[in-house]
Amino acid sequence: MKYSMAKVIVDVPSRETDRPFDYLIPDGMQGWIEVGSRVGVPFGRRTVQGFVLSLHEHTELDPRRMKPIQELLDLVPPLPADLVKLAEWMSGKYACSMISALQAMIPSALKGKAERYISLAEPGEEESIGEAEADGLFAAPLLLTGEEEEIVRYVQASGQVTLDHLSAHFPGRAGEIKGLIARGILAETQMIKDKVRKKTVKTVAAAVSGEAAEAALASFSAQAKRQKEVLEFLLEVGVPLSLQEVLSTLGVTAGTVHKLAEKGFAAITDVEVFRDPYKDRRFKGSAPLVRTPEQEVVYGNVTEVLDARQHGVFLLHGVTGSGKTEVYLQTIERCIELGRQAIVLVPEISLTPQMVERFKGRFGGKVAVMHSRLSTGERYDEWRKIREGRVQVAIGARSAVFAPFADLGLIVMDEEHETSYKQEETPKYHARDVAVFRARQHGAAVILGSATPSLESYHAARSQADDDFAPLLLEMKQRPLGSRLPGVHIVDMREELRDGNRSMFSRKLHEGIASRLERGEQTVLFLNRRGYSTFVMCRTCGYVAGCPECDISLTYHQKSNNLRCHYCGYAVPAPSVCPECGSEHIRYFGTGTQRVEGELAKLFPGIRVIRMDVDTTTEKGSHEKLLQAFREKKGDVLLGTQMVAKGLDFPDVTLVGVIAADTALNFPDFRSAEKTFQLLTQVAGRAGRHQLPGEVFIQTYMPDHYSIVHASRHDYLSFVREELNHRKTLHYPPYSKLILVTLSHEQLPLLLRMAENFTGDLRAKAQRLGWFGSLDRFAADALDILGPVASPIPRIKNRYRFQCMVKYRGTLDAVRLVRETAAATLEQLKDASLQISIDVDPQMLM
Ligand code: ADP
Ligand code: ZN
Ligand code: ZN
């Protein structure tokens, strides 16, 4: 079939360009252009990157007025057609542009930008530039100044140079260069350039064999002894070797090998290689374990769907250590046997080295790891292994859900309740929803695993009310190794204070640590990061250093001794006297973990503490190193923030202490009880996972809070029941859906007016549709609008922020309503600096 026209989504981020544009397909590209191809197309006066959305035989437009596609950037389209469909769905669901959805799916290496190249213009018929020398060349009418001539000569000598290079070489001559282009003496072309290239190595092989080889060997002169040696070696080995290896083995120079190649006796070729970040690592192999009866049920359910190539979603609620990971491994094995591929999603890959090890150990080279700390090139290579079908399993955080497998059979999402599965930047997608959509496209299964499923997933499984998302609930309550869940004690810190203990450690936790030190067992101490930020305060006047652009306090960084804003990056050296009153009593309140570390050293002289927080884990691989050190028992205590709560599994950890459990409870977020419950359950699960029994102390000022009480009893169901009641009364998810709209602008009065306009407009439209103000009544379709109010962080990067919250239920298309209203508001103002951001199903209410 001959396609004459392609619809292309261009990489130009604006509301006006968020639609397909039509381009002609040149004859030479017939058969190469596909849906999902990445192309360079002329757009206005530029060349931009774009993605082919669809191909058409005919065009309604006049072909003479259409521009052709300029370049095809890859032989294999980076996006299979199903991902292009997925992007369309995302754009509707999350109110994001098509290009932002498509860009989220490809590695950053492929986010090419146009480079502008300058060369001599093609000779026209009459005024041929031809072979003539420069003096004869530029006779009238091409009168050039000396400076212009210099530029032209330079371009002529170089053949082709980038505009950046040329303007750097001739500083201050932009006018001349532009003039030469305008007069058609120099030509400008644009080409998309990728950020990284495929990596290649030079290999060498003998290019002769048999009698020809004999003759070749006989032909070397005495001086060419080294060349002869190389050829003998290549003939003996018989397979291509890397040039480097040949040089180092024989101790010859590259010149020798090249001479051999010039004579036609050897061939030097560039061979593409994959950068493998794990190439120097050995993984312990692991065979499948005999399934427990509980695992058998889960395995049976999932493989039934897999074998039948059906779509099915399972919510696997299994206590920590119940063998969920083993089930993932075995179902994936089945998936691979069926010739299909699997994706494993983990909340944050650098925090789950043990997970990666288990998958690598079981499946070896079949696994691609999409690690956030890989270099752009390494990530691109892992991605290519997936796209080219060289691996069957992809493991990674959120964005691995887009792994471009051809026949996806299974998607596993571990710790499905984690907030990191929601992307906070555009496109603001949730990997769980994307996983379910993709699985439906492929007729694939999804396992959502957690010891503390999100209320949304659990409610959906229980009520089976939603056609799109009604997972089947599967449970695992036993630990295969027979170990018991640890005993959890709540420690009332108010009582400690009443009894005169002003330390951050309760007496019980203190005793616990002391006895572990004596017995040579290990302790994990957990500190909730929230509420413990590091700020600078003057003890004399109470001054707190704040960011001049954003309404938040600056954070102290010990290493660089400066103060930094976490929102905009603003940084200043830490002052030694108070900028307000000149007092020297200005104090740096170190991170919570630093303070705890100091206190531990004081109370237990000689104690070995491994601290894991943002300050100690900035370097690549530092998490792994710290955890390895702890595993090798080079530390008595592992102290950290959220990072230590994730799936770690150490046999000698018998004590877990939570320093302050309730810091997150006071957060203005309707999920704070749920988050606290999940975190405590997760931390508690770190103790006594093996033979030694475990013990957990939760220190709190709110010992009666239901999330703390239920977490201490490992009682997920009671927690859920109580929490769902609250949510129902207040119409929060899962009993409603939310859309958070944030408007921002530099001028406060203008912003206020626009926020009022927007909300008023939205209300009026919803009222006309009969949706508005009905959440408290029993209507199936109902919607309420809260706000506008100042955002919890009222100013970021000198922009004021107001927000409004849409709460709704039923089948009404609120996303569309919000999107259209936002577009109308922007249209009305015609001020590009007003921004309206739409967050569908927000996880963070900031
Ligand atoms: P989870 O992912 O639910 O925390 P894991 O899969 O890590 O649980 O299992 C916890 C421990 O139990 C691991 O040490 C694992 O090797 C072991 N285990 C899991 N399944 C079995 C089984 N069927 N037989 C024996 N040991 C098992
Ligand atoms: Zn002061
Ligand atoms: Zn700032």
TrEMBL record:
Domain Helicase ATP-binding: 305-471
Pfam families the UniProt entry points to: DEAD, Helicase_C, PriA_3primeBD, PriA_C, Zn_ribbon_PriA
Binding site for Zn(2+) 1: 538, 541, 578, 581
Cofactor: Zn(2+)
InterPro entries: DEAD/DEAH_box_helicase_dom, Helicase_ATP-bd, Helicase_C-like, P-loop_NTPase, PriA, PriA_3primeBD, PriA_3primeBD_sf, PriA_C
Cofactor note text: Binds 2 zinc ions per subunit.
Domain of life: Bacteria
UniProt binding sites for Zn(2+) 2: 547, 550, 565, 568
Database matches in SMART domains: DEXDc, HELICc
Catalytic activity from the UniProt record: Couples ATP hydrolysis with the unwinding of duplex DNA by translocating in the 3'-5' direction; ATP + H2O = ADP + phosphate + H(+)
EC number(s) given by UniProt: 5.6.2.4
Top EC group: isomerase
Domain annotation Helicase C-terminal: ranges: 573-725
GO MF terms, alphabetically ordered: hydrolase activity
Stored CDD domains: DEXHc_priA, SF2_C_priA
Keywords, ordered alphabetically: ATP-binding, DNA replication, DNA-binding, Helicase, Hydrolase, Isomerase, Metal-binding, Nucleotide-binding, Primosome, Zinc
Gene3D superfamilies per the UniProt record, alphabetical: P-loop containing nucleotide triphosphate hydrolases (3.40.50.300), PriA, 3(prime) DNA-binding domain (3.40.1440.60)
Role noted for this protein: Initiates the restart of stalled replication forks, which reloads the replicative helicase on sites other than the origin of replication. Recognizes and binds to abandoned replication forks and remodels them to uncover a helicase loading site. Promotes assembly of the primosome at these replication forks.
Assembly with partners or alone: Component of the replication restart primosome.
Protein family membership: Belongs to the helicase family. PriA subfamily.
NCBIfam families reported for this sequence: priA, PRK05580.1-3
UniProt protein name: Replication restart protein PriA
Organism: Paenibacillus haidiansis
